[in-house]
Amino acid sequence: MRNGISRRVSQRFVAGEKLEDAIEAARTLNRGGMSASLDLLGENVSDEAGAQRACERYLAMFDRIATEKLDANVSLKLTQLGLDLGEELCEKLLEKIVEHATEQGNFVRVDMEGSAYTTRTVEMTKRVRAKYKGVGTVMQAYLYRAGKDIEGLLAAGCRLRLCKGAYKEPAEIAFPEKKDVDANYVNLMKVLLPSGIYHAIATHDPAMIQATKNFAKERKISPDRFEFQMLYGIRPDLQRRLVREGYMMRVYIPFGTDWFPYFMRRLAERPANLAFFLRNLVPRASHDGP
Ligand SMILES: Cc1cc2nc3c(=O)[nH]c(=O)nc-3n(C[C@H](O)[C@H](O)[C@H](O)COP(=O)(O)OP(=O)(O)OC[C@H]3O[C@@H](n4cnc5c(N)ncnc54)[C@H](O)[C@@H]3O)c2cc1C
After folding, report:
1. 129 among known catalytic residues
2. Rounded-to-integer distance, Cα 253 and Cα 244, Å
3. Per the CB 3.0–4.6 Å rule, which of 173, 184, 251, 256 could disulfide with 41?
């Protein structure tokens, strides 16, 4: 994280280190007809004080969103709220944030992390959703279990974000081949869209987007009944095009100092990003001498 080049390249994917940077990015997106989801970077906190701090910052974020009248919600990770330290602490903090969001008519998206956390994330989201409506989570199409989880989450009335999945998972639990992940993605999208709940189709893949548009048209599901989501800094051209075509678009805006794991996932999922990073690295390295 101290490496200046990593820092510079990571800025392509991260709005900045301060809440102010994320607010500014959200304002710009709102002006362009897009909504936002603000994510305070951070995961796997190892002490209670860290989890409490993250909770306070999320509460303050909702207040700031309301004051600024932004079209934005938030995304968070349960390991940022202390899931590694125990479910009780984590659930208490999540509930506090979701209660606050629900009071403001806003919404908390619980990001989905690696498979060690899937069951706890699904079950905790359902429990909190039974008390407050402003919470939903994420399903990863690479997981074999995703279809079954979706059934339970829909029965609990949860809004879902469908993505392909960003973590390295073994073949026992996740499709190893991209074509199978894509096929499952399309199947799951076809379960979500007609469910009557407002879901998010999160992808930069033109084939997934086209399949979604086709299915919605065929089933006469109007474009305001769901939203597309993309990550900050990735395919902004496609983000704008979908807005022009009349679709809802929300951009996930990560910010904060703890950007390293997020940045590594973005490099890992696309070799071209790694090449971009290395191109930045090489000329500098040659000036640096032995
Ligand atoms: C809003 C949002 C929220 C997400 N939340 C989660 C989550 O909670 N849990 C989780 O596991 N995953 C999450 N993801 C990540 C997701 O699982 C994928 O890893 C990521 O979106 C890449 O998959 P893709 O659908 O874009 O398709 P891919 O087939 O990977 O990519 C399709 C095309 O998109 C572009 N693209 C994709 N990734 C990049 C990149 N890093 N840099 C530049 N271009 C790229 C390229 O043009 C590529 O050809 C989220 C993604 C989005 C958009």
Report:
1. no
2. 21
3. 256
Q: Please, how many CA atoms are within 13 Å of residue 115, restricted to the half-sphere of its CB?
A: 16
Q: How many residues does the chain have?
A: 290
Tens digits of residue pLDDT in 215-261: 999 999 999 999 999 999 999 999 999 999 999 999 999 999 888 88
Catalytic residue among 109, 129, 161, 250: 161
Residues having CB closer than 6 A to ligand 1 are 111-112, 138, 140, 161, 163-167, 202-205, 229-231, 234-235, 252, 266, 269-270, 273
Closest ligand 1 atom to residue 205 Cα is: 32
If you measure from the C-alpha of residue 3 to the centroid of ligand 1, how many angstroms do you get, rounded to a whole number? 25
- Expressed in angstroms and rounded, the spacing between residue 203 Cα and the centre of ligand 1 is 5
For residues 101 and 105, what is the distance between their CA atoms, to the nearest angstrom? 6
* Token couple for 258: 């703890």
Axis-axis angle for helices 178-192, 146-155 (nearest 10):
20
Question: Quick one: CA torsion of 118, 124, 126, 127, rounded to 10 degrees?
Answer: 160
Q: In the structure encoding, which two tokens stand for residue 259, read together?
A: 């950007």
What does DSSP say about strands 72-76 and 108-110: parallel, antiparallel, or unpaired?
Answer: parallel
